Amino acid sequence: MNRINDYLLEIPPEESGAEVPIKIYANEKIAQTMGRDRTFKQAINAAKLPKIVKHMLIMPDGHEGYGFPVGGVAAFSANDGIISPGVVGYDINCGVRLIKTNLSFDEVKPKIGALMDVLFKKVPSGVGSRINLGLSKSDLDRVCEEGVRYIIDKGFGVEEDIERIEEHGHLEGADVSKISEFARKRGTHELGTLGAGNHFLEVQRTDKIFSPKIAKAFGMEEGNVTIMIHSGSRGFGHQVCSDYLRSFAEYQQKNNIVPPDRELVYAYVDSKIAQDYLASMKAAVNFAFANRQIMTNSVRLAFEEVFEQKWDSMGMDLLYDVAHNIAKMEEHDVDGKRMKLYVHRKGATRAFGPNSADIPSIYKHAGQPVIIPGSMGSSSYVLAGRSEAMFETFGSSCHGSGRLMSRHQAILDIPASRTLGDMKDKDIELRVRDKKLISEEAEWAYKDVNSVVETIEGACISNIVARLIPMGVAKG
Questions:
Q1: Which residues are catalytic?
Q2: How is 230-292 classified by DSSP, letter by letter?
């Protein structure tokens, strides 16, 4: 492993036996934490996959995952490459969105307890959480194929929201006929729910602006309150992944394919099973975008109830929504040649630079907003994509702070009382349905998010724009 600079390590293919180099964005301390689990081994296995292009990447929040490291990015030729469900992950389009307000910390602080109570009621959370919005199975199918546009037409948002969502909240080519009946049944009453695990809803204050010019373009002001939603495609997307992992394993057995790791099942992109998976994955992507859109509507209604004014008068515009478990066809320059690639990001965020055609016109000169949630009780960040990322990382950045401990280890090592005391000391209102999450999601079970984003900026992948501090946290 060669250290290229303070923020970048590389494992050459001649050392790993892989097809391409492995680039690891990590300072010394972060690299040491990655060495405690199978992050590097999983990256080497992934770099041995056929038709992988240019390099395998690990972001500074990287850690061991299912077959492929969380915080990993890999791209494959769209013409003759492969698709892998394990490289996308179980929670298809797990992602995060940030809602702005013109309310100050001083205006919200006296009502934060009441606000968290209403938010906790209006946005169901926890394992198996469900909500009845009056949506039929037919509505679910249309959400999966049409994405956010359909749900906004049903009254869950406004037209302006669409431009501020990655891919405008809709991937073309989704086909619900390729999805199992069981997956569709699971999804019927999950739209509009947060889920459990590391998913959360936070009310935050904008603590510090680091890049005033970009912050102005994003409409962010120091002291103003924001709301962050972190959730994905719930049991619906999980079932899609589970179904296709089995189907891909059968495809590999039939075609005598032996992957570098049994969890890295893959199929060639021109195969029927790969195309069926892509159509199903896109449906789960659209489901997740719509899920976060419905929760946005619930958040706006909660603010209206507590502050007794319309949400638009409180400036509750969507800043942006990003996916961080996804495979998408994109065009990138590879060794001076323009190529169509299926870029797989698992626990990694798209971070396109200024003047990209794929980001909203209002952010064109600033770069794409990149939203980085921290752990429970820690800071979160807003970054902006840089042009360097387009050549270095397929326009990708980190997605959070990244786990240090397994959930089991966190329960053993971090008493809930420690977290509760820390949250009380920081004057953070906490609402949680499953008390074991207090230990599982404790700040000390994760890497230091400040170090993670400093590494990303030091590597010239994204600019740090603003730091957000939690006022209230709701978890499953």
A1: 399
A2: EE--HHHHHHHHHHHHHHHHHHHHHTT---SSTT---EETTSHHHHHHHHHHHHHHHHHHHHH
Burial of residue 369 (number of CB atoms within 10 Å: 0-12, 13-18, 19+) = buried
Q: What are phi and psi of 382, to 5 degrees?
A: -110, 125
109: domain CATH number?
3.90.1860.10
- Alpha-carbon dihedral sign for residues 233, 234, 236, 242: positive
The vertex-83 CA angle with 404 and 24, nearest 5°, equals: 35
Token duo for residue 393 = 């990382």
Span 393-448, pLDDT tens digits: 999 999 999 999 999 999 999 999 999 999 999 999 999 988 889 999 999 999 99
The parent domain of residue 174 ranges over: 2-84+93-475
- Can you tell me whether residue 134 is helix, strand or coil? coil
> What interhelical angle do 234-254 and 272-307 show, nearest 10?
170
Tens-digit pLDDT profile for residues 326-339: 999 999 999 999 99
Total structural domains within the chain: 1
Position 251, amino acid: Y
Contacting residues for 203 by C-beta, under 8 A, at least 6 apart: 108, 112, 115, 116, 119, 225, 226, 227, 470, 471, 472
Cα distances (angstroms) measured from residue 360 to each of 238, 285, 320, 364:
30, 19, 9, 6
Buried b / exposed e over 230-258, threshold 16 CB at 10 Å, is: bbbbbbbbbbbbbbbbebbeebbeeeebe
For residue range 6-65, list pLDDT tens digits in order: 999 999 999 999 999 999 999 999 999 999 999 999 999 999 999 999 999 999 999 999
Report pLDDT for 137.
Answer: 85
